[in-house]
Amino acid sequence: MNDAGTPVLKTADLAASWAAVGTSKPHESARLHVLGQADYTDDIDEVRGTLHAALGLSSKAHARILDIDLAAVRASRGVKHVYTARDIPGTNDCGPIIHDDPILADGLVQYVGQPIFIVVADTHDNARRAARKASVSYDELPAILTPQAARAAQSYVLPPMRLARGDAEAAFAAAPHRVKGELYVGGQEQFYLEGQIAYAIPQENDGMLVLCSTQHPSEMQHVVAHALGLHSHHVTVECRRMGGGFGGKESQSALWAAAASVAARRSGRPVKLRADRDDDMLVTGKRHCFHYEYEVGYSDDGRIVAAKVDMVSRAGYSADLSGPVATRAVCHFDNTYYLSDVDIRAACGKTNTQSNTAFRGFGGPQGAIAMEYVLDEIARNLGRDALDIRKLNFYGRSGDGSERNVTPYGQVIVDNVIHELVDELEMTSEYRVRRAAIDAYNRTSPVLKKGLALTPVKFGIAFNVTHLNQAGALVHVYVDGSILVNHGGTEMGQGVNTKVMQVVAHELGVDLQRVRITATNTSKVANTSATAASTGADLNGKAAQDAARQIRERLADFAVKQYGGAARDVRFAADTVFVGSHEIPFGELVAKAYLARTQLWSDGYYATPGLSWDAKTMTGRPFSYFAYGAAVAEVVVDTLTGEWKLLRADALYDAGRSLNPALDIGQVEGAFLQGMGWLTTEELRWNEAGKLTTHAPSTYKIPGVSDCPQDFRVCLFENSNVEDSIHRSKAVGEPPLLLPFSVFFAIRDAVSSVGGHKVNPPLNAPATCEEILKAVAAVEAATLQAPVATGN
Question: Angle at the Cα of 405 (from 402 to 407), degrees rounded to 5?
Fold first, then answer.
């Protein structure tokens, strides 16, 4: 007891029980968000003399430019400058991998919306109005608009890829049953709340400061330096936060950063380029849509014995990130299922549309949904519950000696928990009871039909380009005991900064309030990777932990010099340093260490170990570990209108030892709704001239509040990462986006009930009301044509 009669924990007890990670903490900017005080790029005070830019866009999908008359543009109110490709000081390219993506079109346009020139004016409004006054003469060329047309024309941005294992043809020949068909899954607009924006401010000695809404500051630095004909050290890119990214600001923020910087360089004035929503959607790429031709052989009980799929995506006019997206689609075709003999092909179709790019999941969802579609069909063909067929085909349980634990690309799965996870969700969601109740409901309901589906997820975590799996961080401890952290990740609302702050606080044993985080800046941490591939917390958390550990070890060494004992026995917890029988407040020890000339800052670095990938053979160990999950969705469908509603959703997600359960649950909820939008309402449409007609909120329908089910149950699965990830946690950015597969297949289940589950509904995604009605009509027609059974 102390003097006040309060029990005092023993040092060992306090040090052991205290933790800054594994607890639910508010987002570090939550208060600022609520109060409207969080600064985004457009909120930053403008430097005196700032000008505003807008882009002049192509009105043709594929054409040679014969003549550009910009006189009316230059004469427009407030216009100061107009720039074309010839005004770019350096390289006219913003492609992230292959240099086939011009900043400004030069003689050839390849999609409706491709930027041709930059207008710089005194106001944003004047620049936008002027950009529409150009007179451009074109010589139109044939345009390819769909992935199917690209396949027919053998039009690709990259050579097609193939992954084969075993002898698929022999396995097909021995298979008792086959299912064969086609599927189309549409793309998706990122629809971040904050649009694309860059603010370029000239600095002394040829320097350029670019304030940019981007997931990849280092890539923006490289692109801007090349466009200006300068070195990387001339360019500083900074991003404090984004109002959403979802992959759309990984590579495609480059166009906006480069255009603003070129205008700023040429004019000698600060230039802000803020995209209007319509322009943003017309110019930027989306999630790749995919067309599939599949064939799968299976046994009498529903086990897959052979699988073949040929996927082609709508890449758009340039390569962008289509190659890595296709690679991930190939590597996620298996999802949670063992495939012994496979032939997986993928091609990136070159089309005269926006160059498609990264989107949350990065090809993983597009690969996995095809296998789920096939299993759904096998179950219906055999008259069995789809969940039973899925469970039958799972990879083997970890540790049971099963040979069914190697992926088609050769990675051994050592952390499989899908059996236990699905068993738990099946029980907690009362799947079997609800299935019986839904079947009974459908028998007496001729118009409204209910559907139910449980779908699993296995998602590989790491960049599938090995060298990108690295990160750096800086940690400064000031004399007053406060801590400043900088790392290479970018905050787009997902909470990576909060998690990194928690990691540093935990490592130094201090209250989270002591820690502050600063804007991501290329002059502080260099050569960073994009905040993508669900690696933000994994990589940057480890790098920050490394930096904080070095400071903690220096402080421990100093403490034992002052108070005796061994450095390994010094404990940092609860804002206190425990050295033998001494308890010193953290701030007090820091102040003393400073006077003793102890280094109180450090850099940290991390590179994910054990990764390998051979792009030629498409084999290796591309992923550090796998994140797992499953979801159950129950829907009701109006078979007369195609309208539907999600009644209940249960999701169980494997976040390992979660760094922050509240943030992770929020990420699962958001990913579920976003993925549901992709598969049900978010339809991208181009007209015959190649213009995207769904380029505004009025025509492009993301999920709203009313689409969220009243009964939405999200839980985290009790687990610990087998790999040495940051505090044994698992990534939670992209994998949950696959959970709403359950919604799509619940809709398909409801439509299937129209024909007594005897017909496989030909349902494409997104499952809009129109698509649902088409599927209902197909089931009804097939049911009427089915032969009537007669008794003996």
Answer: 155
Lookup: tokens for 767: 């499952």
User: Residue 718: which residues within 8 A CB-CB, separation 6 or more?
Assistant: none
Band of pLDDT at residue 597, cut at 50, 70 and 90 = very high
- Is 734 an annotated catalytic residue? yes
CB atoms within 10 A of CB 31: 11
Three-state secondary structure call for residue 735: helix
Residue type, 586: F
Distance CA 250, CA 573 (A): 38
Three-state DSSP at 206 gives coil
H or E stretch at 67: strand 63-69
Phi–psi pair at 286, nearest 5 degrees: -125, -170
Question: Is the dihedral angle over the CA atoms 164, 165, 169, 173 positive or is it negative?
Answer: negative
Measured CA to CA, the distance from residue 150 to residue 64 in angstroms comes to: 20
State how far the Cα of 307 lies from the Cα of 665, in Å rounded to an integer. Answer: 35
321 HSE (CA, 13 A, CB side): 30
Query: Which among 286, 282, 216 is positioned nearest to 249, based on CA atoms?
Result: 216
Give the Å distances, CA to CA, from 363 to 146, 331, 644, 735. 18, 9, 27, 11
The burial class, CB within 10 Å (0-12 / 13-18 / 19+), for 48 is exposed
Please write the tens of the pLDDT for every residue from 497-514. 999 999 999 999 999 999
CA triple 631-633-634, angle to 5 deg? 160
Are residues 431 and 632 in contact, defined by beta-carbon separation less than 8 angstroms?
yes
Question: Of 366, 115, 104, 357, whose CA–CA distance to 250 is shortest?
Answer: 357
Cα dist. 784→263, 448, 747, 779, 781 in Å? 65, 20, 21, 9, 5
Q: Is residue 88 classed exposed, middle or buried when 0-12, 13-18 and 19+ CB atoms within 10 A define those classes?
A: buried
CB 739 within 8 A of CB 723: no
Q: Mean of the pLDDT values across residues 578-603?
A: 97
Cα–Cα distance, 119 to 135 (Å, whole number): 14
Q: Which two tokens stand for residue 99?
A: 């240099």
Q: Which of 238, 426, 734, 771 is catalytic?
A: 734
Chain-centroid distance of CA 591 in Å reads 43
Instruction: Supply the Cα-derived Rg of the chain in whole angstroms.
Output: 28
Q: Which amino acid is at 709?
A: P
Element (H, E) at 33: helix 30-35
On the 0-12 / 13-18 / 19+ scale of CB atoms within 10 A, 408 is buried
**pLDDT attached to residue 5:** 47
Tokens found for residue 251: 């590579």
**Amino acid in position 312:** V
Distance of CA 564 to the CA centre of its chain: 50
What are the residues whose beta carbons fall under 8 Å from the beta carbon of 159, sequence distance 6 or more?
A: none
C-beta of residue 214 within 8 angstroms of C-beta of residue 220: yes
The Cα 629–Cα 424 span in angstroms is 11
Calculated CA dihedral for residues 292, 297, 303, 308, nearest 10 degrees: -40
Inter-residue contact 352 to 142 (CB < 8 Å): no
pLDDT of residue 786 exceeding 90, the answer is no
Dist. CA 654–CA 721, nearest whole Å: 9
DSSP lists the bridge partners of residue 133 as none
Which pairing describes strands 197-202 and 271-274: parallel, antiparallel, or unpaired? Answer: antiparallel
According to DSSP, the residues that pair with 136 across neighbouring strands are: 68
Strand order across the 342-350 sheet: 161-165, 342-350, 304-316, 290-298, 177-185
Residue 1 has pLDDT above 80, yes or no: no
Whole-number mean pLDDT of the chain?
96
Start-to-end Cα distance in the chain: 89
